[in-house]
Input
Amino acid sequence: MSSKSKLFDDAVRSLTSLPGIGKRSATRLVLHFLSRPKEEAVEFAEAIETLVKNIKYCQKCHSISDEEVCSICLSKRRDQGFICIVESVRDVMAIEETGQFQGVYHVLGGIISPIEGVGPENLNIDTLKERLSTGRIKEVVMAISPTIEGETTIYYLSQIIAPLGVSISTISRGVSFGGELEYTDEVTLGRSILARLPYNTNKE
Amino acid sequence: MSSKSKLFDDAVRSLTSLPGIGKRSATRLVLHFLSRPKEEAVEFAEAIETLVKNIKYCQKCHSISDEEVCSICLSKRRDQGFICIVESVRDVMAIEETGQFQGVYHVLGGIISPIEGVGPENLNIDTLKERLSTGRIKEVVMAISPTIEGETTIYYLSQIIAPLGVSISTISRGVSFGGELEYTDEVTLGRSILARLPYNTNKE
Output
């Protein structure tokens, strides 16, 4: 929809550059801003600016943080000897949401992808090596997507980590809970048979 | 998802206050801002601020405008004697999109709704009266949603406009083009029979 207002169209264009926001949603959002008191939109804009200007990345794990070191890396209730290696901050949040992991994280900031020009030197691997060479880390679990790039990254990291005497695991792959075998792709299904688990007959 | 960062959570909260944006989309948007150069997010925030601080409302029709009077009200190609009365700026855009209306607009800024505490005094009705009393307006068409509040508003306005000798119409209501009779609500279907139109056997 053309609004005949350059200011309006600029704001719509700016919003449509965001992921998942089309022209219709953008128009609706801009009209929403205009329908509310001016201060509300200014506050909103300032929250975004404050975020990008002030957010820090934890010096230890590279996850987002309000301080130099994040609350997970500082927590005494977390196992500081157990590191979960992930691609991005989003993955940290997703795993935290499960409540199943009590260790700490290391955010790589991407995965090795020759096509996109991302090599090991572009990832937070040096600081990972440093953390692992202190001798205080007993285990790492790699929670990295099982794609070709992901597998490459896991292989590359395993070559670095294994000589340090740290135990390495990856998250399990297989059929999703509640997933139908019929709709599971054949690679996943095939691997889930190869990586079958002993069935516990004495379930709690 | 909790991020353990107050700055992050503030930005997410700020985004979820927007229509059509849930917590998941908001998190995705904030991570998007963080994954892009800082300047991009700042530019985005500034586009929103610039918009709300600088947008004007046309002194004649109350639609949004970059100048004191909007381009439609200034256009010599538009019929300045034919006013389409609408609830909001969004309706102006929707009607402009059709390309079927060659007159000008008058944005009420809402509709009469006792439940939401909106009375005629809260709407742009005084300026409408002024425009109509110049004698230069031949017709108004009310493009207002056929809801109870809409019908109330149309009735209220008709009582004001009729004595001024201006011809009044409303947009037609009926079954949508491409709509199935089976799925049309009974009020619409009933009225569409009462308001039946002569069929043109010499279609162009």
